[in-house]
Amino acid sequence: MTDKEIQELKDKQAKDKAEAIKNLNKEHDEKVEALKKEYDEKLEAANKDKQQSDKDKEKSEAENSELAARMAMLERKDRANEIETWIKDRKHAGKMLPVEEKYVKVIAEFMAEKKLTHTYSNGDKEVKESLLDTFKALFSDEVRKTSVFKELSHQDGPDGPEEDEDAGVEATRRATVYMKENKCDLKAAFLAVFKEDPGLRQRYDEMSKQ
Predict the structure, then answer these.
(1) pTM of the predicted model, to two decimals?
(2) Please, are residues 144 and 154 in contact by the beta-carbon 8 Å criterion?
(3) Distance between CA 15 and CA 17 in Å, rounded?
(4) Using DSSP, how many helices (H) and how many strands (E) does the chain show?
(5) CA 88 and chain centroid, separation
């Protein structure tokens, strides 16, 4: 083999090698481009899914918020109806004066809305009770035994008793104000009012014994 033939063979081998490298680089670039395209498509799909998920989440939160608002409204209506029925029963039984009704309604609805509770000792046990139940007990048959309530509870006209003419009404009103101002329970408020005004306590006790 002549030098010329050897050189031509070397040139051909070099050319073939360069062509092979070129083909390999092209194939590599195509694979990289395909992977990049696949990655971009998946990223775009993921972003769309996230956007849809965010929209679904916002929609779900809005629906839950609306549902919660409706439930709260229904609960308020149920509480109001329950309190209204109780007030009518107590008036009919002669245990609540007409002049007391509007105050009792406001207090009862406030206690029910806030779900206030208090704890007291019963022997060696601590008892947790709804403050509304305790408040209702003030108008129970056991507490309001006096017949004057039965006589006055049906007087809705201008001839009915004024607010402060009745010790029960005055004590309830003042205790309610004290409870709101000092953020305490109703029992503590009554005790504080009676401590400040022993005369009111005496009139309240005398009224209850009638």
Answers:
(1) 0.44
(2) no
(3) 5
(4) 7, 2
(5) 29
In sequence order, what are the residues at sequence separation of 6 or more whose Cβ sits closer than 8 angstroms to the Cβ of residue 109?
79, 80, 83
Question: Tokens 């439930």 sit at which residue?
Answer: 71
Mean pLDDT of the chain: 79
Report whether 160 contacts 166 (CB < 8 A): no
pLDDT in tens, 53-85: 777 788 888 888 888 888 888 888 888 899 999
Q: Of 174, 171, 177, which is closest to residue 144 (Cα–Cα)?
A: 171
Distance from C-alpha of 68 to C-alpha of 61, rounded to nearest angstrom:
10
Distance between CA 82 and CA 87 in Å, rounded?
9
SS3 203: helix
Q: Domain map of the chain by residue range?
A: 93-209
Contact 201, 194 (CB under 8 A): yes
Cα–Cα dist 38/131, whole Å: 65
| pLDDT exceeds cutoff 60 at 155 | no
Whole-number Å distance between alpha carbons of 169 and 152: 12
Task: Give the H or E element holding residue 49.
Answer: helix 3-92
Q: Exposed/middle/buried for 195, CB within 10 Å: 0-12, 13-18, 19+? A: exposed
Closest Cα partner for 160 from 98, 207, 204? 98
Q: Which two tokens stand for residue 167?
A: 């010790």
Q: What is the largest CA-CA distance in the chain?
A: 143
pLDDT for residue 161:
41
